[in-house]
Specification:
homodimer, mainly alpha, 11 helices, 0% strand, DNA-binding
DNA sequence: CCTCCGATTGGATCGTCGTTCCAATCAGGA
DNA sequence: TCCTGATTGGAACGACGATCCAATCGGAGG
């Protein structure tokens, strides 16, 4: 007996594995990425995967680095640092919007290379903006944390919208719940329901970046 | 046969369960909260817990609501809305610092009551700040997202510091890694290593809030 | 061409998790 | 007193990440 499945001929590599993992994540969200799904897609076994990858965290980090590296790698050479900051931020937003699992991962393990690249990029542009030395560190931290915060929200919303049907219906449902709150107890949220329904995520994100930049400008 | 353990006499309730869950989370982090640990601590079975709680997400959300409600419940009546915003923000920061699992949870399921309270509180204070209507929604979103971003970072750092020994050593290790990066490839991160080692998390968080408030002030 | 050894692969297996399910038990109204 | 619905305790299930090892491959040295 002992007829095992034929051994694969094309070499397995970390890159191939990471690419497959990213595809699974894009297709079915974080919950869909299991080693069982991965072995099925790659037509291999657990051992082969663990030979190239330390564990699931390592795999997620590598996939995240690949996505973020792709975004920041497109070196946008912009004359105006202010505009470059908006471009880079929006690039990150769009990438995380397209791959919500990246947002959750950036959030979960912030010491990995991906976040380092983000800090470097944003910090460098703040230097170009002539932010004074003392405030530079704080400003970079604030801006990165803002981006991460939005990233997480996006990921959560994507998880929910995927489970709940389309985005439109989901947003409407949340807005309806907000609107139905007691205006005396929740005056702000109650009246914000309309804007929640109509708002554009990208525009609101950029508005937040602009708010930051306006605050930074007062430091000069 | 069939000698089962004696049945508990004092009634189990959702509140008791949530309190026990919070204690486990505080003591051992998110990984420590399992239904098995919970049954052991409460001296009961799975069924009893599931009778009061829908599932683990529900349990985490309830524990989070309890903590956030406690923070925001201390109604800080401050004359100056600007100062009140700083107080509330810092209160949230400290709460998430003390209970890192709250940060991760706020991030993961943002439609639950806890975040609603935060929006209401911050939005209300922005209204008191005379932020013009159109910008109000964007400003509140930006500030809340910033707080959530910091919350997540804090939670991640706490997870790491707990695994890595004390916070001091962990921060030093990260700073050393930053400092050892090639200054040509990572100029900003390389030179920021010193400030990373010496910085105070609370102060940096407040500096970010102030940056926001400065930006908002330009809208008036 | 053969031999052999380290690198690589496939899959059985383990322990743990969240969750389900149901018999056992209790409290209190009929 | 009896009965019924609410509550409890714990066995069992399926899925997960991870480990382990026999099987296999490919190329360096003879």
């Amino acid at each position: 007996m002992a007829n095992r499945a034929p051994r694969r001929t094309d070499g397995l590599s970390k890159e191939v594995i990471v690419q497959a993992a990213a595809a699974i994540l894009d297709g079915g969200g974080e919950a869909a990425l299991t080693f069982r799904a991965l072995t099925a897609r790659l037509a291999t076994g657990y051992g082969a995967i663990y030979h190239h990858v330390a564990n699931k965290s390592d795999l997620l980090a590598a996939a995240t680095d690949a996505v973020i590296g792709g975004v920041l790698g497109d070196a946008v050479v912009e004359a105006e640092p202010r505009e470059a900051l908006r471009t880079v931020s929006l690039g990150l937003f769009d990438a995380i919007d397209a791959h919500p699992w990246v947002g959750a991962q950036l959030y979960r393990e912030p010491w990995r290379p991906a976040l380092l690249e983000i800090y470097e990029r944003i910090g460098g542009l703040l230097v170009a903006l002539d932010v004074p030395g003392r405030a530079l560190f704080d400003a970079a931290g604030a801006l990165v944390n803002y981006v991460l915060g939005v990233a997480g929200q996006n990921a959560a919303n994507a998880r929910l919208a995927a489970a709940d049907g389309d985005r439109e219906a989901f947003l409407g449902a949340v807005a309806a719940r907000w609107a139905s709150l007691d205006p005396d107890e929740y005056p702000f949220v109650h009246q914000a329901a309309n804007q929640l329904r109509e708002h554009d995520d990208r525009e609101q994100f950029l508005a937040g970046v602009d708010l930051f930049l306006a605050g930074i400008a007062t430091l000069r």
